[in-house]
Amino acid sequence: MDVRRLIDVKNGTASREIFVDRDVYRQEQEQIFARAWLFVGHECQVPNPDDFYVSRMGEESVILTRDRQSKLHVFLNTCRHRGMKLCRHDEGNTRVFSCPYHAWSYSTDGALVSIPGELFGVPGYKKYYHEELDKQEWGLVPVPQMINYRGTIWATWDKSAAPFEDYLGSFKFWLDSALDHRDGREGGSVVLVGVQKWRTNCNWKFPATNFVGDAAHVIAHRSVDMVNLNPSGTEGRRDERAEGHAAFGWPDLGHGGLGFTSRPEEEFPRIPSFQKYPHVSEYLIQSAKAHQKRRAGKIHQQGKGTIFPNMSFHEDQPRTIIVHHPNGPTQTEFWRYYLVDADAPTEVKDTLRHYYMTYSGPGGMTEQDDLENWASATEASQGAVARRFPYNYQQGLRYSVPYEGLPGAVWCGERVTEQNQLIWLKRWAEFMEARDWDQLMRRVPVSNDVAFPLKIVR
Asked: pTM score, two decimals?
């Protein structure tokens, strides 16, 4: 499908077709989800040898494992014999994955194994295969590239994909702010309890382009603001202590979010509140002081947003990761991971768990507003007449300028703008058209290579 007619970056519009059309959706699976770096899970979900965690990469079910030698792997969750879904549990520990159809069995390093007897391993290996089946050739399908980044596991199906840190660019500093310990140590966060999962009848691009930097939520979240969900016990749903937040986007990479830069002479991190929960507040204050001491004199970036295509995160209130898995053009399966310092006191972890779920997730007061909006927008965009009229992304159009503090980033000095949504859509169009990673990393222009419209600074 020719996507050039669907995204008009210069004029700030996008066709509704990309949010509802099945042909567009099928092309996305090949062009985006089969090539981009995707979030799989966290190493803490497989802490011991032979642990496993079943995740997703686009439509594909995958298994994150830690083998007997403690090496991490990501495999396609399908038996090589007849394609049966191999592992049907969300997580656990096992020495062998045995297919429930014909009992082909695999170890946690992906090898097709031999087990004494004829019921498991490769049944009939001697009698019916005459010991001629090449077991090394028929092991589980591994992802070609995988990386453990500060405890988070990422993978791509494309063996020629750019290195992960090149894929992140300087947006990595914001991801670090979510993954690092509150006292400034690298990494140090773990997934709190389990993963919340639910489905909503909306296209996966609605949440991706929402979390990339949509801040115009005065009406959408008005009811939540009125009940004062703020952990400080003050008005509103969130502590807006980080004044000066603005929208930053990475036009060549598709990432974006809301954040700020702290200069070396400024106090960072800004002392957190959570005054409604004194024990949490005290823990965070002490951690912030240790952070200031550990990283004194350094520029610090902090923000929240979306890593193209479908992983979004928040570094603070609540501290969370959400992945928007595509389930067809008009359904999304959401997976929410909540993060906490690994060595935080139990009482702090328990309080944060309750607060996080009150705010986010299918039972969260704020998330319910978003889900209703995205489902309604998807439904209202499916009709033959409705599809004729594009969405508008012109807020702040041509007012963005390069930002020196973050290489590759642009900003307009405002928190409320649609530059980031347009940047995400620009990258979507490039993925949909590009033949290979030489084009995606701009070594060779794509046919729809339209520069992001910047403000002319004289």
From this structure: 0.94
